[in-house]
Each structure stands twice: as C-alpha cells, then as structure tokens.
Amino acid sequence: MELCNKLKSFLEFDQGHMDPSLFPIHELDITYYGNQKLDVYLPDTTPTKKPTIVVVHGGGWISGYKQSKFMHGMIKIVNYGMNVVSIDYSLSVDARYPQQIVDIKQALLWVENNADKYHFDLENLHIWGESAGAHLALLAGLIQDTQLLGTPIPQPKTKLKSIVAFYPAIDTTKMEKQLIDLGCTFTSDTSIYDEDGLISLLIGKENFFKEEVLSTLNPTTFIQEDMPRILLQHGTGDRLVPHQQSIDFYNEVTSKYPNQSITLELFDDAIHTDDIFFTDTNIQRIVSFINE
After folding, report:
1. Residues 241-278: tens digit of each pLDDT
2. Which CATH superfamily, name and number, covers 5-291?
3. Chain segment 126-172, per-residue pLDDT in tens
4. Full-model pTM
5. Domain coordinates of the chain in residue numbers?
6. What is the 3-state secondary structure of the chain?
C-alpha cells in the first residue's frame, strides 16, 4: 500500500518497546483470533477471581502494538491486583474498519472463554484504551449491533462494567476545525485528518465524505441507556486530538442520558500521550474508578 508523505512521517514516531519481564507473571503472544495475538499479565498465582482489564494500544489506527513503550504505563495496573490482557488488532494498513472492532470483540470473547484458566472475573470486566485505542475501546464497548457496514460483529455474552478512554477521537469530521480553533495550522502535507490522511486510510478514501460511514466511526452514534460506565481523560494542550472531542462526547451523553455514569477529567496543558496520564497517581485514579 502506497502511503502519502504525511502518513509516512506519522509512522516515523517512535513507539519503542516495553520490557514484559518487569511484570513477572505473564503469558505472551497468545493467538486469540486469526493471526491476532494478546498478552496476559497476572498480579499473582492465586485462584481468586480478580478484576480484569483489556488494554488497547494507540498509534493512529496505522501503527502501535501491544508491547510498545506506551503500554508499560497501562499494564502496570497489574501491580494493583488486576488481571491485564494487552491486545494487538488489525492496523488500517492491513484491514479497513470495522475489522478493528471485530478483533476487539473477539479478544473479549477470548477473555470470556478463558476466564476459568486465568481467573478473570467476568462480572468485573473493563476495557481501557489510549488515543486510537481509546476511540476503538469506546466503539467496542458501545456497539451492540451484530452487523456494521456489512461486516458481522461478534457479541460476547459478558457485559463490560466500564470503559476508560485516554484522549479519544470522537467526531472525526470536526477534529481539524477544532485544532485550527486552538491555533494549529495545517497544509496539504501536514493535515492527517483530510481525505489523504488517517481516517481515509481507515475507512477507504472513497468513503471519506460518506456520512453513513463516518457516523459509524463516532462513538456518540452508539450511546444508549444501558451502557458501561465511562471515564474520559484528556489534556487541554493536546494538538493531535483536541480535548473538545471528549467534552462534546461527555455533553452528548449527559444530555441524552442524565443518569448515565460518565466522568470527564481534563488535565491542564497536558499534551497527547503526556507522562501525566501514566503516573502512579493517575493509575491509582483508574483503579479507584474501576473499584467504585
């Protein structure tokens, strides 16, 4: 697949590599569906069922993997007594949306089917994503349809208790304008949200202006009364995914479903993938939210 120069530049971003040995009780590279793999991290070897969280990496839908350097900050929640399942999924250079949702649903099915082996507490199951992974985590947690854009969507029996989303994209049609409102400037060589950019690659360039396709990328499309609890965190200094995306989603949910449990936390001046999101203090905040 031939990529434009701005996407090639995006791919040059260093994803790094974490050291799984920092979390001694683990099982790596388990095939869960097709050629997709996941890693399991456990806090101990006791047979007690424990809260379980599926973590979804970012990377603009075009890059990233389950052992990138950014995943260390999420996987360390295992140190707080939680099982962690870190997954890979189809990147947009390999498969179009909604294959990513299929993959994540299949990962949840794998968790469901292997609960006894790894002591996953299916009544205390959560999903947590950052960046593109946050966007996909919201979609996977909210979509209850059995078909999307002509693709069958598997639906696990287990209901997610909550979704944690770090700086997610929500309405991709508004992102560029919101960034411009923040003072960002773009050219045809730098904008990654136009018809030659990340979204186009994810859904296909011929679908870039099709509202019926773009609407299925928007988690707001799938909000309903019976949905998991949601925690959104976003930095006001984010110049890749504007924090207005999370604000708009929060406002839409609270307007339509005032009784829905959703929390929005904004971090002053924090940028995309800012270290503040992965501090021990904030990980403890995620633990507190999960245990509420």
Report:
1. 999 999 999 999 999 999 999 999 999 999 999 999 99
2. Alpha/Beta hydrolase fold, catalytic domain (3.40.50.1820)
3. 999 999 999 999 999 999 999 999 999 999 999 999 999 999 999 99
4. 0.96
5. 5-291
6. CCCCHHHHHHHCCCCCCCCHHHCCCEEEEEEEECCEEEEEECCCCCCCCEEEEEEECCCCCCCCCCCCHHHHHHHHHHHHCCEEEEECCCCCCCCCCCHHHHHHHHHHHHHHHCHHHHCEEEEEEEEEEECHHHHHHHHHHHCCCCEECCEECCCCCCCCCEEEEECCCCCCCCHHHHHHHCCCCCCCCCCCCCCCCHHHHHHCHHHCCCHHHHHHHCHHHHCCCCCCEEEEEEECCCCCCCCHHHHHHHHHHHHHCCCCCEEEEEECCCCCCCHHHHCHHHHHHHHHHHHC
